[in-house]
Amino acid sequence: MSKPQGFEFWRTKLRSAKFVVAPMVDQSELAWRILSRRYGAELCYTPMLHASVFIRDANYRKESLQTCEEDRPMIVQFCANDPDTFLKAAKLAEDHCDAVDLNIGCPQSIARRGHYGAFLQDEWEVLEKMVKTCHENLKVPITCKIRVFPSVEKTVKYAKMLEAAGCQLLTVHGRTIDQKGVQTGLACWKIIKAVREAVNIPVFANGNIQYLEDVHQCLKETGVQGVMTAEGNLHNPALFHGLSPPIWQMAEEYLALAEKYPCPTSHVRGHLFKIFHHALHIHRDIRELVASVRTIAEFKDVTARLKERCQADVEEYEQNPEEAKSHFKLPHPYWICQPYVRPGPDANSDPEKREVRDELNQKKEELLDSIREYGLSKKQLKKRLKHPSKNFDPNKKLRFDTCLTCPNPKGSRCEFSLCKGCCRQQASKEILDCEAHGMQYKTKAAKLETSAHSQLQNDSKIRVPSSDNEEHLLTSEPHNRKLNRSVSPMSESRNLSENVEKSTSPQEADVASIDL
């Protein structure tokens, strides 16, 4: 059966999804996807996964593919720069998703170092081969997520190249590779519209989505099939329902899901920082708690404490709303889920923000001064803040001799001078014991041999009464056959015939041989 393509794929497998949650590194994990689906998301992507790590690390693969029955439709996204590596990773994921996506849009410095994401957008031959290879060999469709070029014509040509290679759905982020951080600016919907009109596959738009009204406006202006959001969703998971719930409500729901579908603590902390963003500018002590706690129970306690603070401000706001609005300087009160607008290059001119930033920097410097030691870099000092007992003196670090067969440290008490992995291989191959590494291949083999020998002695001979009331020993043939599996059926019949002949008269032996 052929896989669906283009618009058929979008209508059937993706159920004509219009409201899409973007792939977000360490942020679009299962718990967050389920929360987003509760509030209107129709399609979700996994976080961006590294194809090479996905292939070699089974634990990474298991954590990355965590899903459940209600988590569909779902697309797995990979970053890669080699066709064979990308295909191997995609083959491992194809049975767990509705499509595989190639990330060609990440503009971060880590993507530059790894040579993937948007830093492949000028290597069209490599991208064409990656997309084509997966299109021809996967059971599910291949999709792509890109950033635009400053030129409309080049962006359209780029999109058509990917379509010709086999891309079945294209997500276009309307920003260039240089639009990030303080230079983020606005996404260009006009270029997205030009791409949509030039290709014959479904197109999703990405960029400038803060409220549900923006979603509808984008659909109207660009003509795309769906709208994807990242930042807007992180600050307000209920965006697609057009709701702006209290921040503690979203946090409580998310923490309950994170408890049901466990994920790394860093993911949970990142989500709470996003949801609580505006509130943490007012309740700065809560920020420190969010940064330091490590369990779901502790995160729940911090959420309850912030909820109590917020509800006290709600009462004050209801008594004097105008004064409270002027104080918060936000579209909504700070305890309401709402978007965060990244500051532009002139953000330093805001005296209030500069004062907050200077205060935080001063506090950090004071902490660093309190632990400052000769020879430690600023980065090491920050690590010392998180891990006070960490040893940075190379002269005091423990040194280990290397394994005889690999560069890893050898076991300090290993009698073969090997690391654990090499010791296991040698011990299993040569049937040896290593007390240091807990290898007991020789001991176990000896126990099995002793047990088998004892069983053989106990069961191989059975005493039966003879006709003259004397006892003689008769070999138990069925047991011998069980022990000696290498004996052929022909040999067993011959042996049985010989025993019968010894224990019967010549006439009886003839009858017995005929029966055999």
Automatic annotation (TrEMBL):
Keyword field contains Nucleus: yes
GO cellular component terms, A-Z: cytoplasm; nucleus
Compartments it resides in: Cytoplasm; Nucleus
Superkingdom, natural source: Eukaryota
DUS-like FMN-binding domain span: 21-307
Pfam families on file: Dus
Enzyme class: oxidoreductase
Catalytic activity: 5,6-dihydrouridine(17) in tRNA + NAD(+) = uridine(17) in tRNA + NADH + H(+); 5,6-dihydrouridine(16) in tRNA + NADP(+) = uridine(16) in tRNA + NADPH + H(+); 5,6-dihydrouridine(16) in tRNA + NAD(+) = uridine(16) in tRNA + NADH + H(+); 5,6-dihydrouridine(17) in tRNA + NADP(+) = uridine(17) in tRNA + NADPH + H(+)
Keyword annotations from UniProtKB, A to Z: Cytoplasm, Flavoprotein, FMN, NAD, NADP, Nucleus, Oxidoreductase, tRNA processing
GO MF entries: flavin adenine dinucleotide binding; tRNA dihydrouridine synthase activity
Family: Belongs to the Dus family. Dus1 subfamily.
The protein's name in its UniProt record: tRNA-dihydrouridine(16/17) synthase [NAD(P)(+)]-like
